Amino acid sequence: MVAGLRSACGSSAVTAMIGAALTSAMVLAAGLGTRMRPITDHTPKPLVEVGGMTMLDRVLAHVTAAGVSRVVINLHHLAERVEQHMQAHPLPPAVEMRYSDERAALLETGGGVRHALPLLGDAPFWVANADILWLDGPGETALARLAAAWDPERMDALLLLHPLETAHGYEGTGDFHWQADGRIAGRRDGQGRAPYVYAGVQILKPELFADTPTGAWSLNVIFDRLLAAGRLYGVVHDGHWFHVGTPDRIAPTSEQIARLGR
């Protein structure tokens, strides 16, 4: 399944361009998926099928098409199911896959990435949620656009954002404001709606975690720090993005993907 989507995610030229700079990716697959119960009582949320393909396979297809040579997947909830799935659906031979084991304690997003740093290397890397779903726009892929915008002199993290008004299935109030130079600002309490949603894909520098604690904590801690320093940037997604948070969103999202021919 990964190979099938991989061919639609990017050209060889795009793969070469991205792979030269960003060779490692972490896929966050450890969450409990409580809003997706009762399905997640026996199936981890990343393995829920939407449009005939698991959400995990879709994310892995995107990152492997981007030319990474190493993928790290963190494990906690129903970890053995993820391992079994990856044995049956291996990544391309050129991509090394490692697990970051959190079975002893769930570390959330920030703690999970920090725990996996020894597996990710010393260069900036991709981080993607395993329970999101996006389709690339008409031009370059979302990851190619992020890679092209990445400027480590100006930024310490670069997020993929999606317009609130076209976020399929999303019922929140948004996360960020986006400026023409790519810099983003957070939605303040009492401010109402923000026009952009964090789409669950980003580039991070490993040195961001140098003074962070062990244990469980959210990447929002880093986001808040970078917002204050003016070092958090974003790229606005030009394709489709879907929020599949509850069981009742699976069927309509699958139907939308079928209509889009993807």
Question: Could you describe the 3D structure shown?
Answer:
With 262 residues, the chain is an alpha/beta fold. The protein contains eight helices and 13 strands. The chain has helices spanning 2-9, 12-19, 55-65, 79-88, 108-120, 142-149, 220-229, 250-259; strands at residues 24-28, 49-50, 53-54, 70-75, 96-101, 125-129, 133-135, 157-163, 176-178, 184-186, 196-204, 232-236, 240-242. The strands form four sheets. The protein has a seven-stranded mixed beta sheet, with helices on both faces. It has a two-stranded antiparallel sheet with strand order 2-3. It has a two-stranded antiparallel sheet with strand order 7-13. β2 (49-50) and β3 form a beta hairpin. α1 (2-9) packs across α3 and α2 packs across α6 (142-149). The longest helix has 13 residues, at 108-120. The radius of gyration is 17 Å and the shape is globular.
Averaged pLDDT: 89
Radius of gyration: 17 Å
Element string (H = helix, E = strand): HHEEEHEHEHEEHEEEEHEEH
The CA-CA distance between the termini, in Å, is: 13 Å
Strand content: 15-25%
Question: What characterizes the major β-sheet?
Answer: 7 strands, mixed
Cα shape = globular
Ranges with pLDDT <50 over ≥5 residues? 1-20
List the topology elements.
Blueprint: H1 2-9, H2 12-19, E1 24-28, E2 49-50, E3 53-54, H3 55-65, E4 70-75, H4 79-88, E5 96-101, H5 108-120, E6 125-129, E7 133-135, H6 142-149, E8 157-163, E9 176-178, E10 184-186, E11 196-204, H7 220-229, E12 232-236, E13 240-242, H8 250-259
Parallel strand pairs: 1-4, 1-6, 4-5, 8-12
Antiparallel strand pairs: 2-3, 6-11, 7-13, 8-11, 9-10
Helix pairs in contact: 1-3, 2-6
